[in-house]
Write a structure and sequence with these properties.
255 residues; alpha/beta; globular
């Protein structure tokens, strides 16, 4: 009988749920307890007041969840938008996490870089649809974005059965993309993170460009580890599940 670490997965979006994580990371059940949840306002969670759909509240929710479940020193794994939450949680509550894994995320979004990458990967139409969505993040524009832009997020096709299981909440996505997505900047807080950090980034990621990831790596404490994935896009568990699993396994089990 041996106590195993607990990995808490922090899903992307916002507006999605945690369901895709299960397909990607079930391989880790032999080394850790795996916990999945949906942010407030996302997936199957209750909405609560909309004014609390903020990066700070989502970060506090993550700590509260762990405390309620009795999880001490969790390994927190945040991807994309979930990485924003995970970074913010680790900065606001530096004594709480045991380790932090962040994938395809950054401390600040630079849409000019993203639009240029969308055009490079998909052409002018993909860029135009992305620009239209971020300028006016309505459900109609989001539907178009999902249909036209999402396919260039990865260099390998995303299995359609994974997306079909996702419960999408457009209202929280619209709320976030009309507000803090363009203004939040975690850079000033990153020096407060004290736990070991593993950062994963795809060099062909169009929404969190490799330049954004490099900026984050430079701002994180010196003990953070930065791993790049050549010719990989935004969803690294789709692009290279073997390497992602190997890196996370090694990081979680490290003394």
């Amino acid at each position: 009988m041996r106590e195993r670490p607990t990995i808490v997965f922090v899903h992307g979006g916002p507006g999605f749920d945690h369901s895709m994580f299960k397909a990607f990371y079930a391989q880790l059940t032999d080394i850790a307890q795996l916990v999945y949840y949906d942010h407030r306002g996302n997936g199957r969670s209750e909405d609560g007041p909309k004014e609390r759909w903020t990066p700070d509240q989502w970060a506090d929710d993550l700590r509260a969840l762990c405390d309620t479940l009795g999880i001490e020193r969790p390994v927190v794994f945040g991807t994309s938008f979930g990485g924003f939450v995970a970074l913010n949680y680790a900065a606001l509550h530096p004594d709480h996490p045991g380790r932090l894994v962040i994938s395809s995320t950054t401390s600040k979004i630079h849409l000019d870089r993203s639009f240029a990458m969308f055009e490079r990967l998909g052409g002018p139409e993909v860029r135009a649809v992305a620009e239209r969505y971020f300028a006016e993040p309505t459900k109609e524009n989001r539907d178009e974005y999902q249909r036209v832009v999402l396919p260039v997020y990865t260099r390998r096709p995303l299995p359609p059965e994974l997306l079909s299981r996702v419960l999408r909440r457009d209202e929280v996505a619209e709320h976030f993309f009309r507000g803090e997505v363009l203004t939040f900047d975690l850079g000033p807080r990153l020096s407060q993170i004290t736990c070991p950090v593993l950062q994963l980034a795809g060099e062909a990621d169009p929404i969190v460009t490799i330049e954004d990831s490099e900026d984050l790596a430079a701002a994180l404490p010196a003990h953070a580890r930065f791993e790049r994935f050549p010719n990989a896009g935004h969803m690294l568990a789709v692009e290279d599940p073997g390497r992602v699993g190997e890196l996370v396994r090694e990081f979680v089990l490290a003394e």
